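Lab notebook, bench 4. The sequencing result for the construct came back, and we need a structural model before the next group meeting so we can plan mutations. Quick request posted to the team channel:

Model the 3D structure of this chain.
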Amino acid sequence: MNRKDFVLFFLLPFMGTALVFLIISALNRASVDRSVEGLVREQLRAASGILTTDIGLFLSQGASPAGVLDAYAAEENIYFMAVLDEEKNVLAWRSKFEGYLPLSLRDIPETDSWIIDSPAGEIFSLFTAFSPSRGNEYYLYLGYSLAGLENMRARSKRNLLILFGIFAAAGGLIFRGVSVLQTRYLEKKAEAEEARTEREHFKEISAFTSGIAHEIKNPLNSLSLIFELLNRKLPPETRKDIELGRNEVRKISGILDQFSGALKPFHLRREIFPLGEAVPSVFESLAREFPLSRPRLRFDRGAEITLTADRNLFCLSLFNILKNSLQASEKGEIAVTARRIRKWVRIEVRDQGPGIPTERIERIFEPFFSTKKEGMGIGLYLTKKIIDAHGGRIEVRSRPGEGTVFSIQVAGG
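Done. Here's the predicted structure in token form:
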């Protein structure tokens, strides 16, 4: 599944689900609001009925309308109230509504209750007729603050937004996680495909090289025998030229062996061995090939570290790196350091040479790439191939004029 299909497969259903969630939540919230508002209306009507009964009782006992209203002035939820006579003339009123009574007989609807908007929020209004025991008819005009209902609506809306935010965040995290997994899967798939193509490519090259090496080595063997016969039969003064020819034959044979060895797959023989034994043995091998190199090589032994690897192949990879460093830096110390990082061992080879130009760093592990006149570009390629076969990693850091650092990471023992 490519990235576009993945987004269409995951993102669109998620957005659709989120939209359905919002619609259902909004409809459910509206339904709940209507139900709650209906319950509030019924409760306020019931409270109004009790209030008119009490006020009627006080009026029947001779209390003044103003005095009756004063008794209820401290009620927090009663925003305003008024007592009107049977002609709907206001007898007394009390109001928290900016100091006036929001009453216009022309604006009173046919229903006994309605809601008005005010700077303080919604006010639930009731206009109710009642008759005290003396038979006089009065009207009670009440205004109840719906701040509690509005607060509940605000909390409901806030909770809905929080819930949707959590839903969106969870979906985003899931999408991010799945996207990362998908990206890694595609990268691994691309790497596997690249590795498969490379294996097929080098399999063909290996077969071709093996065939060429076989065809060339037969004539080389014949040439070697001919030089041997010539060395016996020709005058002594020609032996120097004959030996030169024999050396060239051996050089060609060695080049063929290197090419064949670089292209063959490795069969690892893993063992646990001390790094403190492997590095000095590599130093000794280098000293035989570069007699003046021994004083320049330094190994910071530190704590005893063991590796799990093919000893011979690991020593060959380290030999190739150190050889490259010796050839690149004619003077200066070459230091080998090692440290344990959990289950891995990280080995660094640091030289004081001229460094590697940036445009060449990415190519130094390519087969047959070399900047030296006599180099064939196989040593570092073979080193990387060995480290990769061990499941390790090799990196290089370098700046012109600041030397070069090769880092190898392999499994510890």
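Helices lie at 3-60, 65-71, 147-233, 239-263, 275-289, 311-328, 358-361, 379-389.
Will bring this to the meeting.
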